[in-house]
Design a protein that fits this description.
S16 Ribosomal Protein, Chain: A, five-stranded mixed β-sheet
């Protein structure tokens, strides 16, 4: 079974709200899924993003493929950075230190 990380649409008409889910690639967009991994609300300014980093990394390490939109959201949140460092053989402490440094730098550039 090929697993995809994708957005599942919720909310009312003209007010979309998305859940990030791990789903079988053959299942319909808003159909059956394996696990909810977080949510994305583009209606607020800035958009609200709440992801379970540990579970997303778990699925990515097992070979789940994110869609293009999910890949950009994961990149924005730094989850793909953690995956990259894990694949390079870094320890969890090194990964967390690099992630915190990246997050600090990202916040500093946003305020400027």
């Amino acid at each position: 079974m090929a697993v995809k990380l994708r957005l599942r649409r919720d909310g009312r008409r003209h007010y979309a709200f998305f859940h990030l889910v791990a789903a079988d690639s053959r299942a319909p967009r808003d159909g059956k899924f394996i696990e909810k991994l977080g949510y994305y609300n583009p209606n607020t300014n800035p958009p609200q993003i709440q992801f379970n980093h540990e579970r997303i990394l778990h699925w990515l390490q097992k070979g789940a493929q994110p869609t293009e939109t999910v890949r950009s959201l994961l990149s924005r949140e730094g989850i793909l950075l953690k995956l990259h460092l894990w694949r390079k053989g870094k320890t969890p402490e090194e990964i967390e230190a690099a992630y915190q440094a990246w997050k600090t730098q990202k916040l500093a550039t946003q305020k400027s």
